[in-house]
Amino acid sequence: MSYLARLAVTACLFAVSSAHAVPACEATSGRDVVPLVELFTSEGCSSCPPADRWLSATFPPGEAGVSVLAFHVDYWDRLGWKDRFASAQYTARQYAAMRANGATFVYTPQVLVQGKDVDAGRRERAASAAKAARARAAHATISLDFRPGQATARAHVDASARRDAALWLAYTDSGLVTEVKAGENRGVRLTHDHVVRALYGPFAVDRAVDVAVAPPAERGRHPALVAFVQNAATGEVLQTLTLRCPE
Fold first, then answer.
1. Helix ranges (DSSP H) in 11-79
2. For residues 141 and 134, what is the distance between their CA atoms, to the nearest angstrom?
3. pLDDT (0 to 100) of residue 5
4. Are 71 and 193 in contact (CB under 8 A)?
5. Does the pLDDT at position 204 exceed 60?
6. φ and ψ of 56, to 5 deg
7. Which of 47-51, 124-128, 177-181, 207-211 has the lowest average pLDDT?
8. What gap in Å lies between CA 5 and CA 187, rounded to an integer?
């Protein structure tokens, strides 16, 4: 990845004109791809904690050069433990990825890189696939302008890409801890990074989008906004941009 691309991904410009000014964060994606790594996981799945630990170790929060999303699905809640980070919306996203990949079922833990399934039993391939993706030219440009407010924050997203693409915006948090009291992981203390707390979209890419982002009541560490442009039919990820938010 070029120096300018790394700078664009990590840039957080604190424009302070007075003691009471609100910090502003801005960034624009570079010419090279910043790959998207997705983990579909659940606190109710006994095989998921190793994948959660792998995600944190392989892609530490705050690291530049890759955009990371951990989606907690809700279909394992029936096993006796309700995952407070799970959402039917994230389950629907996994099913959409299943159809785009020509698969016939979903499972956890599942890893996607650039929208494509990576063998869950060989997760080291994810890091290799992400590294290979960084050598490619991006097929979309994303700009983010994040201005925190009192109760909500407004993210101005501007993306340009092919007509068959859609824009998504995710709010993520890390360092979130759960003491599981029931289900397959009963008695286990789980730590989660890159957890998707809110997902907005899809949006058309031929116009600027204003999104009101409301941070969750339970806050973790290293909050970030992750914007990504994806082919709506094939699931191919054209570009991503991660913007670290003021903590």
1. 48-58
2. 15
3. 37
4. no
5. yes
6. -65, -40
7. 124-128
8. 43
Q: Are 215 and 154 in contact (CB under 8 A)?
A: no
Q: Give the list of residues 6+ apart from residue 219 with CB closer than 8 angstroms, or none.
A: 173
- Segment 10-28 shows an average pLDDT of 48
CA-to-CA distance for 68 and 61, rounded, in angstroms?
Answer: 9
The answer, yes or no, to whether the previous bond of 202 is cis (omega within 30 of 0) is yes
Using the 8-state DSSP alphabet, how is residue 43 labeled? T
The answer to whether 112 and 97 are in contact (CB under 8 A) is yes
Residues with Cβ within 8 Å of 242's Cβ and at least 6 positions away in sequence, in order, are: 9, 34, 64, 67, 68, 224, 225, 226, 227
Residue-range domain boundaries for the chain: 3-244
Eight-class DSSP state of 35: -
Q: Where are the alpha helices (DSSP H) in the chain?
A: 3-10, 48-58, 88-100, 124-133
Distance of CA 195 to the CA centre of its chain: 7
Contact 233, 174 (CB under 8 A): no
- Dist CA 134 CA 171 (whole Å): 23
* Distance separating alpha carbons of residues 190 and 81, to the nearest angstrom: 13
Q: How far apart are CA 143 and CA 133, in angstroms?
A: 20
Find all residues with CB under 8 Å of 227, minimum gap 6, and list them.
142, 144, 157, 159, 167, 168, 169, 170, 240, 241, 242, 243
Tens-place pLDDT, residues 35-86: 999 999 999 999 999 999 999 999 999 888 999 999 999 999 999 999 999 9
User: 3-state class of 40 per DSSP?
Assistant: strand
